[in-house]
């Protein structure tokens, strides 16, 4: 069984501030982990993917995420928020050969000027 | 690469009418997924196909929903008869193989009055 928990349905930051979006997962086997972003009126787009090659994964638009097995976490960070980062962010886990990702409920990132 | 193409972008219909949503996946992708997104339930997997064959339809809400994939480049999701509670954004997504990231279309926003 696999599941994903995203802590905080909304995260609000000021422009230029650090962005931290939290994701914890449960999986009985080493997982694939993903972060997706959804802009208004669009589908989800891949930000980054963890596949066990490296624990720190760099994605598009300056985002990165660190896989911590001991904490079963895959938090998403960005050093300095831009107004254009305002969107919905989804964490997803895929494991056990299911080929079916399980998505978290999403976190809405709000960026204040 | 045109991405996943969904049509229509918006559909407004009256309760009891038949609704057909269409999807063209990315060429060469073996997996196709249909998701529904609502504020209350988040992103729900309805059904997925592998090589045009339905693999898991346990997420389809009820018999009013049906999905087909007659060939590798086309899939439909049909609701008959439609009900107001079916109002949601429906996404189609495709992936190259199991464990590959999903590529989402821009969705169809369905409103049933």
Any descriptors?
heterodimer; A: 113 residues; mainly beta; 6-stranded mixed sheet; 11 strands; 0% helix; B: 113 residues; 7-stranded mixed sheet; 4-stranded antiparallel sheet; 55% strand; globular
Task: Describe, in plain words, how this protein is organized in 3D.
The complex is a heterodimer of chains A (113) and B (113). Chain A is mainly beta. Chain A contains no helices and eleven strands. In chain A, strands 2, 4, 5, 9, 10 and 11 form a six-stranded mixed beta sheet that branches. Chain A has a five-stranded antiparallel beta sheet with strand order 1-3-8-7-6, with no helix packed on it. Chain A is globular and about 45 Å long. The mean pLDDT of chain A is 92. In chain B, the strands form two sheets. In chain B, strands 2, 4, 5, 6, 9, 10 and 11 form a seven-stranded mixed beta sheet that branches. Chain B has a four-stranded antiparallel beta sheet with strand order 1-3-8-7, with no helix packed on it. In chain B, strand 4 and strand 5 form a beta hairpin. At the A-B interface, strand 4 and strand 5 of A face strand 5 and strand 10 of B.
Layout of SSEs?
The complex is a heterodimer of chains A (113) and B (113).
Chain A: E1 2-7, E2 10-14, E3 19-27, E4 32-38, E5 44-50, E6 56-58, E7 64-68, E8 73-78, E9 87-94, E10 102-103, E11 107-112
Chain B: E1 5-7, E2 10-13, E3 19-24, E4 31-38, E5 42-50, E6 53-56, E7 65-71, E8 74-79, E9 88-95, E10 103-104, E11 108-112
Parallel strand pairs in B: 2-11
Antiparallel strand pairs in B: 1-3, 3-8, 4-5, 4-9, 5-6, 7-8, 9-10, 9-11
Summarize the structure.
Chain A has 113 residues and is an all-beta fold. Chain A contains no helices and eleven strands. In chain A, the strands form two sheets. In chain A, strands 2, 4, 5, 9, 10 and 11 form a six-stranded mixed beta sheet that branches. Chain A has a five-stranded antiparallel beta sheet with strand order 1-3-8-7-6, with no helix packed on it.
């Amino acid at each position: 069984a696999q599941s994903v928990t995203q802590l905080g349905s909304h995260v609000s930051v000021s422009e230029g501030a650090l962005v931290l979006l939290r994701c914890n997962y449960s999986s009985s086997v080493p997982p694939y982990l993903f972060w997706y972003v959804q802009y208004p009126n669009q589908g989800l787009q891949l930000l980054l993917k963890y596949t066990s090659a490296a624990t720190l994964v760099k994605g598009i638009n300056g985002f990165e995420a660190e896989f911590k097995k001991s904490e079963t976490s895959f938090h998403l960070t960005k050093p300095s928020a831009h107004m254009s980062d305002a969107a919905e962010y989804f964490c997803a886990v895929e494991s056990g050969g299911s080929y079916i990702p399980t998505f978290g409920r999403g976190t809405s990132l709000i960026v204040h000027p | 690469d045109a991405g996943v193409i969904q049509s229509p972008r918006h559909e407004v219909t009256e309760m009891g009418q038949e609704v057909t949503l269409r999807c063209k996946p990315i060429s060469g992708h073996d997996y196709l997924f249909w998701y529904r997104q609502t504020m209350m339930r988040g992103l729900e997997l309805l059904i997925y196909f592998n090589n045009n064959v339905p693999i898991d339809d346990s997420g389809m809400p009820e018999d009013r929903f049906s999905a087909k994939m007659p060939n590798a480049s086309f899939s439909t999701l049909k609701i008959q008869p439609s009900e107001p509670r079916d109002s949601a954004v429906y996404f189609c997504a495709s992936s190259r193989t199991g464990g590959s990231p999903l590529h989402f279309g821009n969705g169809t926003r369905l409103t049933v009055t």
